[in-house]
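So, read this over?
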Amino acid sequence: MNTLFNLSGLKLKPYLTFLDLKVSVTNPDGNRAMQEGDSLNLTCTHSCDGGNLSSAFTWFKNGEHINEGSILYLSNMSSENTGNYICSLKTHTGATSGAIHIDVEYGPKNTSVSVSPSMEVDAGTNVSLICSSHANPPVENYTWFRVDAKFSKDVGHQPVFFPDYGGKYLCCATNKHGSQNSSVVVLKIKAYWTTLPREVLIITAITVLLIVIALIAIRRFHKASTWITETGCEEEIQDCMENTDYVNWLSCDTNQSQEGHPSEGGAEVIYTTVYFNHRNTEQQVDFHTE
């Protein structure tokens, strides 16, 4: 608001002056969406200048002062340049231009994995792996990989993954400008027996040990019994053979005469082998036929 004075020095009624501030955008890369690495120029003008750009301007981003001058140069832009820009006259800060929104797109950044409740859990615990990433536009696809010594296996396509097994995992975040992998996280799931109380583990270990000892003892006893039986038979047979006398027993026909002469019809001679075991007979008996 300004106040006019006439030649006689009398004060006249005040009047309002409206300034028409405008911001023009110069994009060397055309009308496509702004991406990281692009450059952009913002030019501030008002109607009183007539395009001479002689006024002093101040630039603001998201309400904060960032620079002065009629032209704001934004080169090699990054995600930090995204925001709302306005200009105003340095001498009339109340008069501002309309806001120009600059949106810089970029691929996924700061991709990471968080584990809930922790990276080392007991068997049977529900575990969730959460993939997060900064991207503009937002991440379109998440891919989970289980990393092995030789290869990586695709195991999921959601921001949150619920693994069934322990191991090494990573996620890959993707949008139209690229993708980025997270670092590898190692999930450890304790075996069920490690979560049992100490007393239970001790009793179980002693029971298993006693069962093993009993099985070994039974097996050895069975083997020893079989060996004794087989060895005893062989020794007995051999001993019997060594302590046996071989005797030829002569049997004559009943028709033989008492004088020892054979009968008229002839005599039939029969030989018989008889075994005597010296273990049972201390004295040998000789049989003679008269």
In short: The first helix runs from residue 198 to 242. Helices lie at 198-242.
